[in-house]
Request: fold
Amino acid sequence: MPLPPPLDPYLTELQARNLLPLTQAAAIAEADQARPFSLHYELRALLYLGITLLAGGLGALIYQNIDSIGHGVIIAVIAALMVACFGYAARYRAPFTWGMAPKTSVGADYLLLLGCLLFVVLEGYVQYQYGLFGSRYGLATAMPALVFLPLAYWFDHRGVLAMGLTALASWVGLTVAPLAVLTENEFWNDHIRAAATGLGVLLMAAGFYSEHSGRKAHFAFTYLLLGSNLALAALATSLLKATFHDEPALGLSYVVIMLTLCAGLFWYARRLQSYWFLVLAAGYAYFAACYLLVQLVSTLPNGLILGLSFFLFPLSALLVVLFFVNLKKIMHGPVKPPASFPKA
Amino acid sequence: MKLQAYPLDWPFTTALRARAARWQRQQLVSPAQLAAIEVAYPLAYYRPVWPLRVGLFIFTWIALGMMGGFSLLLTDGHSPIAAGLFFCGACFAMLELMIKERRFYHAGVDNALLYSGLASAVSLLYYIFSDHLWPFNGSYHLDLGGSFLVLLLILALLVAAVLRYADGIVTAAAFVAFLLIVALFGLNSPLGQALLPFLMMGAATSALLGYRQLTRRLAGTYLADYYARCLLMLKVLALAVLYLSGNYLVVRETNAELHHQFKSEQIPFAPLFYALTAGVPLLYITLGLRRADRSMLLLGMLALAFSLFTLRYYHSVLPPEIAAVAAGTLLTILAGSLLRSLRPARYGLTSLPDDEPRHFNLENLIQAQTAHAPSAPAGGGFEFGGGQSGGGGATGQF
Reply:
């Protein structure tokens, strides 16, 4: 005789409080018992891993046998693949709208991304092998941006937009991958820092414009995430440099710009109820505020510095904690119902 | 005083509401019923979404770090014990107060307070031992006589903290302390050194048996929800240690390390370890599939990958590019065909997404790690390395 299934404590509890009728509870217990185990994400991860391994292995094989295959054939194959990807994506494209286009096909989404990656590969290959752009590297880096940005709007694809903005930034001389900002770039170079700040502010302006005017408002997220990371990280390093070189006036102007940008992010975070931007804005604003605090404390007489720091610095961090804890009250309700994201 | 710091109905209510929400998505419960359930079981605690929890944790931690540093400075470094005691006491007092007054429940602030309090208590214990009780002042011992007692005390402290606060990371730390004690016990004698892998396997097995006892004992009570994350952590770590201590590569390289060999040599009982290296991952995967146990299945897959790495480490079976093509083809075909054939559920398995909200997305992780690879040709002559992020950061959830 089979054992009866173990009693679900939640079902018994709900029954005891008369929130579920007995028959329904029995039906739920049975459905839970018969529920299949989903391998969806595991299998998709394996599929992705398999395709990556296959592509990497084939790439290495082609590279080793390049003499017997010939460059022309490889370029032709890449180009054909790219055209096929773009063709498939174009076939399933939803008609253009300034709002968020409905998703017609998941495959088309991925193939569009793959087509864009193949475009970069193709361009790099042609440049490396035949020097198509000569030494005009600016033109070579601007090409992907010129192709991807219109594509992003035409296909309504935020991934392609991010790729286009990344290409734009590398044209300006930078990488905008959010996490790599501080590790990969030489941020101590003045020119690059100024360029990064300028581009970041421009991208943020584009983001605020799209959100405000409702033209591809859901792109604002990408614009603002990349732009704010770029501009604020550049400003933060500028601020550090101003501290080391003892230039308080310059430092103060950086602080003002940083706090303005953070205020803009805070506005967007409130509008979208987006906690990401809130934490980002709070982090950078805290950094700027700490600079002000250090400047303030260092003007005090020597005897007071240690005692006051003991209270002021932990207090500043505690204030941020209090800010987070009371966020619900501060953010209470969006200013307007969020225009861009269904769930953000 | 009750043993548990948080009210027992918080985790129970959370789990119950999650269940009810899932039943509603499966259309086993009507929206009106779900609303009634949510009214009857309100969430009485404070636990924000995870980006905020991370922010809260970081800023609390910064504040505590500065306070700790300044409290050391203020005592002028003369009495670190007093400063440590003060700091540790303050942390735990704040923690208890926060839970009671602000109803924090694993909300970042209480985690940071708990870790800081425990860290200061552990370093205080260690400091007292190294400064006053060990014969060689301040020197570090990895032998039984010196470290055993302090490790036992730390383990006791961590276990007490787990029992009271039910924190996953503290559970992991306690498990590591337990393993350290077992390892020290083994390393102390030549016989123990030889039997070290079996000692570790024994420790992991006893932890698993303890896990089974506990889950059975707690099943159906509020405590099962209260300690759910600790039990999960214990199971995952014990399974991982059980596999790793039988893995051929780990055993062989540790053996070489212990005997100061420049190049690792074949180990005794090698066939046994071959069998364990090959068999344990398959066992985990089978058990994971049969018991619908996702953590075991994922561990099995990771273990299988590490076993293949072990194999390739000692034998170059195929040239890497051929192996990649072969493995890639096999994986693609296997995963693709399973994705298709399991679409109506078979053998209790399905390839359709279930309707649990997902916290950890393996696919996204792999994509984020590998999506940079295709940009390599751009380095062909570009001045700035032409960085490409495959749309990194463009998928916003929060």
